[in-house]
Write a structure and sequence with these properties.
Helices cover 0% and strands 48% of the residues. It is mostly beta strands. The strands form two sheets. Strands 2, 4, 5, 6, 9, 10 and 11 form a seven-stranded mixed sheet that branches. Strands 1-3-8-7 form a four-stranded antiparallel sheet, with no helix packed on it. A hairpin with a 6-residue loop joins strand 4 and strand 5. The radius of gyration is 13 Å and the shape is globular. The N and C termini lie far apart (39 Å).
Length: 123
């Protein structure tokens, strides 16, 4: 098990940027694939991005490709989601996930979740 704590959410105007971070506990961080999901009001939780344990493989949802970038620092046990060119439809609670299994794309279902951080993009 790994404990996850997200930070960095907030209110931003359309076209702006935010940087989300997820801090993980434990000494085996590099063995976990890490990723981000989001859930807007009244909608199901959707996959945003994933990164492999070593950081060598990443995947992003089509809706954020070219605007969002996932990265990780295994020395600091953190994963980051850089969000640029934000749109009002990006408004959601963003969740960090971790799992020892890596699945490329939206079928990934992590067994560990953070508590979420709110991102609101105004038009």
């Amino acid at each position: 098990q790994v404990q996850l704590v997200e930070s960095g959410g907030g209110l931003v105007q359309a076209g702006g940027s935010l940087r989300l971070s997820c801090a993980a506990s434990g000494r085996t961080f590099s063995t976990y694939a890490m990723g981000w999901f989001r859930q807007a009001p009244g909608k199901v939780r959707e996959f945003v991005a994933i990164i492999s344990g070593a950081g060598s493989v990443t995947g992003h949802a089509d809706s954020v490709k070219g605007r969002f970038t996932i990265s990780r620092d295994n020395a600091k046990n953190t994963v980051t989601l850089q969000m640029d060119s934000l749109k009002p439809e990006d408004t959601a609670v963003y969740y960090c996930g971790a799992d020892t299994r890596f699945t490329y794309g939206s079928s990934w279902s992590p067994s560990n979740w953070g508590q979420g951080t709110q991102v609101t993009v105004s038009s």
